[in-house]
From TrEMBL:
It catalyses: orotidine 5'-phosphate + H(+) = UMP + CO2. CDD domains: OMP_decarboxylase_like. It comes from Ancylobacter pratisalsi. Its EC number is 4.1.1.23. This is Orotidine 5'-phosphate decarboxylase. The active site is at D66 (for ompdecase activity), K68 (for ompdecase activity), K68 (proton donor), D71 (for ompdecase activity). Coiled coil: none annotated. GO terms for molecular function: orotidine-5'-phosphate decarboxylase activity. Residues 11-227 form the Orotidine 5'-phosphate decarboxylase domain.
Amino acid sequence: MSAASSDPRDRLIVALDLPSVGAAESVVARIGDAATFYKIGYELGFAGGLGFARELIADGKKVFIDFKLHDIGNTVARGVASLAALGASFATVHAYPQTMRAAMEGKGASPLRILAVTVLTSYDEADLNEAGYAQGVDATVAARVRQAREIGIDGIVCAPTDAAAVRAALGPKRAIVTPGVRPQGASAGDQKRVATPFEAIRSGADHLVVGRPIVTARDPAAAARAVQVEIASALAAS
């Protein structure tokens, strides 16, 4: 496993998939010190979330900007340079070779870590087939991980069900971040390839992205701590 923190709070990334900065501020306030790492995606990002990201970073939190960049190389490189200047800890790009190379160039010497997205956790074999991919999920993930490793990418985003195979192909030093994590008893929602926090960590994941099971909980802080208990159990069993 990569040199990720041993603190379960740092292993959990709370996805702030919310419609407004006000809603995000409320959730973060209710979570308090039960989380240290937050993800901002399109929904919040396009509603003023980048300004909120600066506030979180200034408050000592870590921020993952999940925009899954994919464009011509120059555009990706400049976008990543802006995220590095923001102070983000993680940023995602789609795992296409030209895009990954541009992102690594754009981050320069900053501590920003570039994560390549292999196959979305909402996709299964039928979805890839519909999109025109001749090979299935496993073969597509394997090919993209191999290319990412050769390019020197900082980490991979993959479904928790792919984590063990990705870890074997990626090696021990680079990060694996898994969305599609659902605590025991939680609904899978629109995710198709899911696992519990314990299963994901045991399979080789470093960081788990959890959104709705925490942000929509009656007590978000308690929900975050419950995920961390599973993470701690998995780390102890490793």
